[in-house]
């Protein structure tokens, strides 16, 4: 009986020791964490390019310490419904120097954001990738007064829905250097909401 009593005491202790010593299974990072890390890496690469590239719009590269952004927020990755233009054609989007930028008018996208139905004109480059110039209520105090841009891969379009991640919104080059010309967001893309995502003023 003495042996059995010690045996009953030792078995649970050994079981605990074995469980604790087992390697813990690592938890896979969430999609939002993965997206956040990818965006942080792309921002780091962009800073490096702006600091070193010969065609960089930054006037004083020696003092450039990096761009500024809102904190990453997965809620700003939004699925928009797409209504394609009846006729796909090239149009001229007015630029800051008075010239026109030739783009394909793909159609319009819409989604409900902050309780409001938001619509944006959707453009397309010859490469097939999408281009959205827009301006929201954060301009000009928190973001560039001339608006911001989004460049989206064609693969973001699936069954007439387009994934738009405003965390990737960026300033045009003319925001850093007035010698550059850039497309002006059309009045249809002037948003009556605050888009607190993407690039912001220092």
What is shown here, in short?
The termini are far apart. The chain has helices at 2-21, 31-52; strands at residues 68-69, 77-94, 100-113, 116-124, 130-134, 148-152, 157-158, 161-165, 199-200. With 202 residues, it is of the alpha+beta class.
Write the layout of secondary structure elements.
Elements: H1 2-21, H2 31-52, E1 68-69, E2 77-94, E3 100-113, E4 116-124, E5 130-134, E6 148-152, E7 157-158, E8 161-165, E9 199-200
Antiparallel strand pairs: 1-9, 2-3, 2-8, 3-4, 4-5, 5-6, 7-8
3D structure, described in words:
This protein starts with a helix and ends with a strand. The relative contact order is 0.16. It is of the alpha+beta class and 202 residues long. The strands form two sheets. A seven-stranded antiparallel β-sheet has the order 6-5-4-3-2-8-7, with no helix packed on it. Strands 1-9 form a two-stranded antiparallel ribbon. The longest helix is centred in the first third of the chain and has 22 residues, at 31-52. Helix content is 21%, strand content 31%. The radius of gyration is 25 Å and the shape is globular.
Using brief descriptors, characterize the structure shown.
202 residues; alpha+beta; 2 helices; 21% helix; seven-stranded antiparallel β-sheet; single chain
**SSE succession:** HHEEEEEEEEE
State Rg: 25 Å
Low-confidence parts = 6-29
Binned strand content: 25-35%
Overall, the morphology is globular
**Estimated helix fraction:** 10-25%
Distance between the termini: 77 Å
Structural class computed from helices and strand pairing = alpha+beta
Strand order, sheet with most strands: 6-5-4-3-2-8-7
Major sheet: 7 strands, antiparallel
Number of helices: 2
Quote the average pLDDT: 88
Please report the total strand number as a whole number: 9
